[in-house]
Design brief:
The longest helix has 28 residues. Strand 9 and strand 10 form a beta hairpin. The radius of gyration is 26 Å and the shape is extended. The chain is 27% helix and 38% strand. It is α+β, with helices and mostly antiparallel strands and 260 residues long. A six-stranded mixed beta sheet has the order 2-12-11-4-7-8. Strands 1-3-10-9 form a four-stranded antiparallel beta sheet, with no helix packed on it.
Length: 260
């Protein structure tokens, strides 16, 4: 029988439910904020369930490679952004824009450069990049050029390492296993950190998987945090008592040192 090229047309279409799929997991899904917390590194890993019909195709030109994009997004909060101008020799706040819901932390890790892994249309649809996470239309202010404020906030968050773009940080082995590490900073906001894993091909999302990292105060810090919200009067009296005791103790220590 004469050989044909390509030969993948010989196989019938794949049955439903057998398409390529991404599955993932975390090294830990809970982070406790204590007095000595200095950050935490999260290992994100997973695998690709390959379509068996696709594996039978011998020519790689007809099977584009996979890319992996991992997004870790912190709890959203309202943020006010101010613009300063120099007037009468001093810098003063002149305009402000308040964005209703901005991620407190945002990290994007990829196998290849982000602009190659995700097409602009896909980015706009799935809100993958940090620029898509901070959108001017979230504004509740009346300033005309709100894009300037959102871009400024993005630069500030990137400079403070609260927003990370980790290109080529995802290691993909044999188009099956992948892993990456994301460093969470010390100044974390309490709440759920949504973790999204995207299986990409030709800039399009093939499959996605979601999980979450839960960050919360623990120990004495959590007790004080709850006391401040549940019993503000008791919390204020306790803070005052601690301040008085600390002041009296410091004065007594100085007197002891002076008399020695």
């Amino acid at each position: 029988m004469p050989s044909c090229w390509p030969c993948f047309w010989r196989f019938p279409p794949p049955p439903p439910g057998r398409a390529n799929e991404i599955v993932g997991a975390l090294s830990q899904n809970r982070v406790s904020l204590t007095a000595n917390f200095s950050g935490s590194e999260i290992l994100i890993f997973g695998a690709i369930r390959r379509d068996p019909y696709e594996i039978l195709v011998e020519d790689p030109d007809f099977v584009p490679p996979f890319d992996i994009v991992v997004v870790v997004e912190g709890p959203r909060q309202p943020v006010a952004i101010w613009r300063k101008e120099r007037r009468a020799g001093i810098w003063v706040n002149v305009d402000s824009v308040t964005l209703a819901a901005v991620p407190s932390f945002y990290a994007v890790a990829t196998t290849i450069p982000l602009h190659e892994a995700v097409s602009p249309e896909t980015d706009a649809q799935y809100r993958i990049s940090a620029r898509q996470a901070i959108r001017p239309e979230q504004s509740i202010s009346d300033v005309a050029d709100q894009t300037v404020f959102s871009e400024a906030l993005l630069r500030i968050r990137e400079r403070e390492a609260q927003y990370l773009t980790l290109e080529r940080f995802v290691h993909l082995e044999r188009d099956i296993l992948f892993r990456t590490r994301v460093q969470l900073p010390a100044n974390l906001t309490e709440g759920a950190y949504t973790t999204r894993m995207y299986l990409m091909r030709d800039g399009q999302v093939v499959s996605q998987f979601r999980t979450a990292i839960f960050v919360r105060k623990d120990g004495l810090e959590r007790w004080l945090h709850q006391l401040a919200y549940d019993q503000p009067l008791v919390y204020g009296l306790l803070a005052l008592a601690i301040a008085l005791i600390a002041g009296w103790g410091a004065a007594a220590l100085f007197r002891l040192i002076r008399s020695a």
